[in-house]
């Protein structure tokens, strides 16, 4: 009887239970941290500015119901996703090495996969809260001016959520790549804010090929779905005798790009984390 009780009290929790514990306490850390309230403040400030513009420039900013959502959500939702991914995912794994928290956690024992998945889930939940607040303010303004929410916005909201999933997978990959939190945050921010956009521009304008391999290109469906009719996949324009080709990602293509980015980068990030040793 005593032996069986001893074995039950010292039984290692399952991977699912470990993941739940990591998710719970990491999420609490996020909610109590300055970064959460900084990002929330940025989101609210952007919402206030957009509300001011919508109220004072109706002809340009809200020419129609769909036009309002295109200007408000289509032009800014990507930025909220990128900030959320950087704030909550940039140092999620690298911080385990820099702060030595992983050194004390793994021998307990806690599986590295449970740490990785738990931290990803907590970052996803915290980011979803920020995105939901921004979406709520968007719908509130749209309902005030037009009284209805177009189905295209609901589709765009779903695409934005999927982009968040893919962006967090990518940030966790870079966070697993470095043992220094500052490096992982900086590289991730530079990649999303500058590198991807520059490569997208160069590939389309000078190389004249479709940048189907870019996650930011795939996220174009967030704004494109708010345009009726949906933009043509290939658009040509002659400027000073030079024919230039521009590409607009299709919905199936955009969904595929973001799903592939998440699956590939999340798996590689987990493999990198599993192979690294806490010293």
Largest sheet: 2 strands, antiparallel
Q: Please give the number of β-strands.
A: 2
Helix-strand category: mainly alpha
**How does the overall form come out from the CA principal axes?**
globular
Distance between the termini: 40 Å
Strand content: under 5%
Uncertain parts? 1-8, 102-106
Query: What is the H-and-E element order?
Result: HHHHHHHHHHHHHEEH
Task: Summarize it.
It is built from 14 helices and two strands.
Description:
- This protein has 14 helices and 2 strands.
- The protein has 279 residues and is mainly α.
- It has one domain.
List the defining traits of the structure above.
279 residues, 14 helices, two-stranded antiparallel sheet, single chain, 74% helix, disordered N terminus, mainly alpha, 4% strand
Would you spell out the secondary-structure blueprint of this structure?
Elements: H1 2-9, H2 15-32, H3 34-56, H4 58-61, H5 65-72, H6 77-89, H7 94-98, H8 101-105, H9 112-146, H10 151-177, H11 181-207, H12 215-218, H13 221-224, E1 234-239, E2 242-247, H14 251-275
Antiparallel strand pairs: 1-2
Helix pairs in contact: 2-9, 3-6, 3-9, 5-9, 6-9, 6-10, 6-11, 9-10, 10-11, 10-14
């Amino acid at each position: 009887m005593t032996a069986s009780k001893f074995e039950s009290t010292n039984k290692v929790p399952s991977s699912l239970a470990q993941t739940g514990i990591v998710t719970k306490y990491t999420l609490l850390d996020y909610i109590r941290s300055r970064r959460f309230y900084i990002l929330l403040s940025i989101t609210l400030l952007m919402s206030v500015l957009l509300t001011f513009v919508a109220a004072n420039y109706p002809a340009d900013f809200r020419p129609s119901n769909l036009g309002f959502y295109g200007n408000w959500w289509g032009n800014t939702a990507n930025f909220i996703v990128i900030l959320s991914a950087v704030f909550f995912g940039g140092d999620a794994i690298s911080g385990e090495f820099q702060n030595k928290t992983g050194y004390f956690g793994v021998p307990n024992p806690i599986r590295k996969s449970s740490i990785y998945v738990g931290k990803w889930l907590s970052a996803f939940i915290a980011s979803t809260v920020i995105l939901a607040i921004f979406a709520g303010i968007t719908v509130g303004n749209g309902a005030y001016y037009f009284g209805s929410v177009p189905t295209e916005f609901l589709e765009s909201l779903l695409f934005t959520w999927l982009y968040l999933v893919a962006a967090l997978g990518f940030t966790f990959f870079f966070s697993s790549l470095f043992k220094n939190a500052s490096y992982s945050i900086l590289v991730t921010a530079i990649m999303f804010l500058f590198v991807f956009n520059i490569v997208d521009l160069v590939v389309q304008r000078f190389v004249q090929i479709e940048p189907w391999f870019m996650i930011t290109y795939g996220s174009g469906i967030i704004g494109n779905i708010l345009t009726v009719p949906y933009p043509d996949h290939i658009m040509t324009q002659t400027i000073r005798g030079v024919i230039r080709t521009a590409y607009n990602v299709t919905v199936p293509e955009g969904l595929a790009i973001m799903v592939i980015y998440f699956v590939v980068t999340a798996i590689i990030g987990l493999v990198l984390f599993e192979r690294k040793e806490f010293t």
